Amino acid sequence: MSRFVVSARSTGAGSATLPAMSLYAAATQGFKLREVAVFNSTATGAAMQLVRLTTTGTVGAALTEGEFDEAFGPAPLCTGVNTHTVGPTLGQVLYTFPVGAAIGAGMILTFYDDPIVCQVGTANGIGVITTGTGQIVDVTFIWDE
C-alpha cells in the first residue's frame, strides 16, 4: 500500500451542493483517507463538512496527485479535483467543523488509526462542502491505495 497527497487552493467558494474540492476513487482502486486539512484564505469564517460523494456531477479542474515515496511507490490511481460546477450526489456527512474568520484559520482531520474507506468506482468520493456562505479554501487530502 502506498501513500499519496493532493493539495491546492479551491478555484471557487463551493456551497452546500458544490464541493470546494474532492477526491475520487478509480475504476479499479478505492482509497483509505488518512488526513484532510482545510484552511481559510479569507477573513470570513465558514461552516464546513466532509461528505461522501456517490456521483461526480461536473468536476472542476483535475489536480496533480503525488506520492510520498517517489522512488518506490506506484503512481496514484485516485484523482483529486477542484471546485465542482454541477453538484454531485451527496452521501453521508462524515464531519462538520468550523473554519475561523481569519486567513490561515483551519482544521486538520486525521484518520491514521481508523481510516475512512472509499470503495472502488469512479463515482465514489469524499468532498469538502460548506453549509453556509462558501469560501475559497486550501485543501489537502492524504490517502493510501
Protein architecture, described:
The protein has 145 residues and is mainly β. It has one domain: Jelly Rolls, CATH 2.60.120. 0% of the residues lie in helices and 46% in strands. The chain contains no helices and eleven strands. It has strands at residues 3-9, 21-24, 31-40, 46-53, 66-67, 79-81, 90-99, 106-110, 116-118, 125-130, 137-144. The radius of gyration is 14 Å and the shape is globular.
Which characteristics define this entry?
145 residues; mainly beta; Jelly Rolls; 6-stranded antiparallel beta sheet; 5-stranded antiparallel beta sheet; 0% helix; globular
Structure at a glance:
By secondary structure, this protein is mainly beta. It has strands at 3-9, 21-24, 31-40, 46-53, 66-67, 79-81, 90-99, 106-110, 116-118, 125-130, 137-144. Strands 1, 3, 5, 8, 9 and 11 form a 6-stranded antiparallel sheet that branches.
CATH architecture: Sandwich
Instruction: State which percent range the strand residues make up.
Output: over 45%
- At the first level of CATH, the class is Mainly Beta
Mean pLDDT: 95
What is the strand tally?
Answer: 11
Helix content: under 10%
CATH topology: Jelly Rolls
Helix and strand content put the structural class at: mainly beta
What kind of sheet is the major sheet?
A: 6 strands, antiparallel
Order of helices and strands: EEEEEEEEEEE
**Over the alpha carbons, how many angstroms does the gyration radius reach?**
14 Å
Low-confidence stretches: none
Number of helices: 0
Please state the overall shape, judged from the principal axes of the Cα atoms. globular
Could you tell me how far the N terminus lies from the C terminus, measured between alpha carbons in angstroms?
6 Å
Total domain count: 1
